[in-house]
Amino acid sequence: MKNVKEVKTIIKTICAKDDAVMLDHDLNVSILDENLRVELNALITSMTFTDLNRVVGYFIEELEGGGINMSDDEMDDPDIYLSFCINECDQTEDALQDFVNVFIDTNRI
Q1: Minimal CA–CA distance to 12: which of 53, 66, 51?
Q2: Residue 90: which region, alpha, beta or left (left: phi > 0; alpha: psi -120 to 50)?
Q3: Is-above-0.90 flag for pTM?
């Protein structure tokens, strides 16, 4: 995944601002700060589904988990993360695609 450090940094910034992120009960992410939304959008515009799934995972890690690991991590590999979501989290690829689509639609500029 390109720009991993930049994506992690912007997500940490977004999540640190009280008014920057809104999550609903399905963990759909909405970036309320337009400047941060534009900055993140520029980083993720050409990403594939598996890359975008990892970006959403970073939001979940930062907001619901132990925080994003800023050092290199095997979970930074989008294919490994996709496999983890499908196998360990009992998700289907279709469900993950729907989740990523909601993220894209919610945060489109």
Answers
A1: 66
A2: left
A3: no
